[in-house]
Amino acid sequence: MRRLALLAALAFAAAVQAAEPIAIDVYRDAYCSCCKAWIRHLQANGFTVTEHVEENMSKIKTRLAACRT
Q1: Rounded CA gap, 50 and 35, in Å?
Q2: For the chain, how big is the Rg over CA atoms in Å?
Q3: What is the spatial distance between Cα 17 and Cα 24, in angstroms, rounded to a whole number?
Q4: Any residues with CB less than 8 A from the CB of 41 and at least 6 apart, and which?
Q5: What is the span of the domain harbouring residue 32?
Q6: Does residue 14 lie within any of the structural domains?
Q7: Does 1 reside within a domain?
Q8: H or E element at residue 62
Q9: Residue 66 pLDDT > 80, yes or no?
Q10: Cα(49)–Cα(69) distance, rounded to whole angstroms?
Q11: Number of domains comprising the chain
Q12: From CA 63, how far away is CA 66, in angstroms rounded?
């Protein structure tokens, strides 16, 4: 049983490394340093980030119902 678990873990690790980076869109206010840090964090962890700078974030937050959009 341990051998099977080890093989499964190794196969999963290889699949994760071979996977394409996940693309993510981030909508942010031009003056939000928190959002800039969030984008750096995503990029450092392998995400491909498309950044959208918005003048009116309230309409985006209402539409997507989140702070991290």
Answers
A1: 13
A2: 18
A3: 18
A4: none
A5: 20-69
A6: no
A7: no
A8: helix 57-64
A9: no
A10: 12
A11: 1
A12: 8
0.85 exceeded by pTM: no
Residue 40 lies in a domain: yes
pLDDT of residue 69: 47
pLDDT one-digit tens code per residue, 16-42: 565 788 999 998 888 888 888 999 999
Mean pLDDT for all residues in the chain: 80
Cα 33 from Cα 47, distance rounded (Å) = 19
Paired tokens of 38: 């969030």
Give a yes or no: residue 11 inside a domain: no
Query: Which residues partner with 50 through β-bridges?
Result: 25
Contact predicate 60/36, CB 8 Å:
no
Three-class SS state of 30: coil
